[in-house]
Amino acid sequence: MSTTPRDARAAVPQVPTPASRPTETARVQERRPAPRPEIVEPRVPGEGSRVEPTRMTGSEGIIRSLEELGVTDVFGLPGGAILPTYDPLMDSDRIRHILVRHEQGAGHAAQGYHLATGKVGVAIATSGPGATNLVTAIADAHMDSQAVVFITGQVSSAAIGTDAFQEADIVGITMPITKHSRLVTRPEDVPQALAEAFHIAATGRPGPVLVDVTKDAQQGEFEFAWPPRIDLPGYRPVLRGHPRQIREAARLIREARRPVLYVGGGVARGEAHEELRALAELTGAPVVTTLTARGVFPDSHPQHLGMPGMHGSVPAVAALQQADLLITLGARFDDRVTGHLPSFAPGARVIHADIDPAEISKNRTADVPIVGHVKEIIPDLVAELATDTEALPDLADWWAVLRRLQDTYPMGWTETEDGLLAPQEVISRLSALSGPEATYVAGVGQHQMWASQFVAYERPRQWLNSAGLGTMGFAVPAAMGAQVGEPDRVVWAIDGDGCFQMTNQELATCVINRIPIKIAVINNSSLGMVRQWQTLFYDGRYSNTDLNTGHDTARVPDFVKLADAYGAAGLRCDRREDLDDTIRQALAIDDRPVIVDFVVSRDAMVWPMVPAGVSNDAIQVARGMTPDWDQED
Q1: Is residue 453 among the annotated active site residues?
Q2: What is the pLDDT of residue 14?
Q3: Catalytic member of 24, 67, 68, 103
Q4: What is the pLDDT of residue 18?
Q5: Which residue among 120, 270, 484, 620 is least crowded, i.e. fewest CB within 10 A of its CB?
Q6: What is the pLDDT of residue 10?
Q7: Which one of the listed residues 29, 166, 505, 585 is annotated catalytic?
């Protein structure tokens, strides 16, 4: 079905042989320091400086605490209950504040900043609607395990519970969608609250933390000293996997004949990409990377099969289904990967390593559960396997099956019937011309899936997206945050015409602050993924999915004119012969944001696809076309 495959396997070396494996293992072992901690110890983040007691207000304490924690960039929008903190913020020469146009934009920007840099992101808002406008970003960060601290102002403590102006119980509202939430009512509690917030957000399984500070706590005075004491007696995440479980996992790997490394976002968050590569090359096992793990294992590596799941590659999906062992690292067996859960990987035993014990055996029972940090577990597993490399299985027969699948079902696309641009080709060329050192950000929908399929991912933190929550409007502010965090990189927001209209007010933020993100609007004049489902499952009844933004429509809005109104650069491409030149024009502009309106066919669909609620064996490579597994087995 593919006329334009993207297949880099011919340009890379073949899978390592057992004879080459010990050298790679030794190289990784040399990098490992010893001894290593067993659990996360309480520690105040930052540079470890000391500040003698100094009289100041709670709001001054907030800013000073952020400075001591190493924060250099924050995103926010002032309002009445947080106004005391914005006054000393003006005097800080260590913190850059980016004034957003909507608090949701601040939250997503903080997410993008964290994802691009690995640093804790920070978003600030006022009470009531300011705080509730952060809720979507908080939930998004929670679903995708992102270390972001949200600081909100609250009405004075005496007014709490009186339905005061702009009062909302944001701690109560966000309790289910944060790793930790805290209400601060005394100025002397500010340093500890913020130090603990950063520690909790960034350690263990990362996640969002909310610190809600009443107005009187901001205005009151206290003796500020640094570092504060962290008091979290119940918080001791385990880092090292149990040796017995490591040995049992190694035994299963030696016995397996069809193993697969099923790699999730935990490997990305845990910065364990080098350790992962060592394990993969030692075992010779195929690797699949989920939507949040794209880039932690290079697409060009011969052992990489692509992304699994609903819109994953056929080889990746088939490998999981036919595997006899899943080596699951920082993944959570979510429904978009497994499809119909009882039929997922029916013949496989499961090794499941994760820092969050609640994830292990939550959806799929693990034969060997290992609780710990993947950056610690993987080297221990490599060391155990390296004690007897001769016992590692010969996977030649397994690879013969997988290579046939790769040759038969490469990722690609067909030409459009209406003569408009193919969105897959747009994204493929954007990737080729921008390269792997660029950062790519997407929201949710067809454009997100095409970006996950047709950008070549070669490094960690190259790909940012809203995966678990699936937030429309994520891309533009998240790209803004990524660009602030890494100003020397090219940052592309690959967005849909529907998603773009949800948060495009942040173009003003980018223009005013000279944040030169590049926005590729994949404009099919529709809520594309919804329209695809209406085509496939609702007899083509397109109820409320036409956006009138694209070809042969009213073009409301006209994205080029919108760019001009904001002071950004605006380009449009609707012809294949102009595609490369248009992308090059966008890449050449680095003094302001660029919007490129790529007018694509509204009938283009995302393939492969596993329809919701069915077995992954029913994956379709095109409409009505399912692989013949009897021939492929």
Answers
A1: no
A2: 52
A3: 103
A4: 44
A5: 620
A6: 33
A7: 166
CB-based contact 391:255 (threshold 8 Å): no
Catalytic, 500? Answer no
Instruction: Indicate if 625 belongs to the active site.
Output: no
Euclidean distance between CA atoms 230 and 217, whole angstroms: 19
**In sequence order, what DSSP letters do the residues of 361-415 get, joined into one string?**
TTSS--SEEEES-HHHHHHHHHHHHHTTGGGSPP-HHHHHHHHHHHHHS-S----
CA distances from 586 to 251, 431, 475, 479, 489 (A): 53, 13, 17, 15, 14
Position 401 scores a pLDDT of 97
Residue 633 confidence (pLDDT): 58
Active site residue 297: no
What pLDDT does residue 628 have?
Answer: 81
- Number of C-alpha atoms within 13 angstroms, CB side, residue 124? 28
Q: Determine which one of 60, 146, 198, 215 is catalytic.
A: 215
| Tokens linked to 186 | 């005394």
Tokens encoding 80: 């009445």
Give the closest residue to 107 by CA, choosing from 508, 445, 466, 559. 466
103 is catalytic: yes
The residue ranges of the chain whose pLDDT is under 70 are 1-35, 631-633
Catalytic residue from among 411, 449, 529, 609: 529
Q: Are 150 and 179 in contact (CB under 8 A)?
A: no
Query: What does 470-521 look like in DSSP terms, one character per residue?
Result: --TT-HHHHHHHHHHH-TTS-EEEEEEHHHHHHHTTHHHHHHHTT---EEEE
